[in-house]
Amino acid sequence: MSQKINKDEFRALVFEVVKLIPRGRATSYGAIARAIGYSNYSRMIGSVLANSTELDIPAHRVVNNQGYLSGKNAFETPNKMQHLLESENILVINDKIKNWGTVFWDPTTELKIEE
DNA sequence: CTCTTGACGCAAT
DNA sequence: CATTGCGCCAAGA
Questions:
Q1: Using 50, 70 and 90 to split pLDDT, how confident is the model at A2?
Q2: Contact, A63 vs A69, CB < 8 A?
């Protein structure tokens, strides 16, 4: 059940899920939020990642629910995120992931998170 | 304490 | 498919 959670604990959970995203796949903020039991914290996921771009987590594999690279501006350069995705064979057209339905990786469905 | 902002999401139109 | 509005919650001004 969702109670108050420490900022650091929340960040840890987010990182845990993001690190598990397979290469060549991507997921959404909302999906991660639900996976860790805080479905209403999708915006917080973004905040956490925005403040942690320097850590070694595949933050570029996290986009919004439509497949748009909403966080591209938080990278070193706006085109960095797209570049990273394309290097994993993920096509990005007009800031949106092509074949989003196929590339999308749902943490709750394809993975079991232990809390 | 109030108001604004933001890597969001979803239903309604 | 494009827009709008509203809910959500933390952080900073």
A1: very low
A2: yes
Total length of chain A: 115
Mean pLDDT across A6-25:
94
H helical segments located in chain A: 7-19, 29-35, 42-50, 80-86, 100-103, 107-110
Please report the pLDDT score of residue A5 as a whole number: 80
Per the structure block, which two tokens stand in for A92?
Answer: 């990005």
Residue A28: strand pairing partners? A63
Query: What Å value separates CA A13 and C1' B13?
Result: 37
The bases of strand C with some atom under 7 A from any protein CB are 7-11
A89: left (phi over 0), alpha (psi -120 to 50) or beta: left
Q: Which of residues 35-94 of A touch strand B (CB under 7 A)?
A: 42-47, 49-50, 53, 59-60, 62-66, 70-71, 73-75, 81
Full-model pTM: 0.91
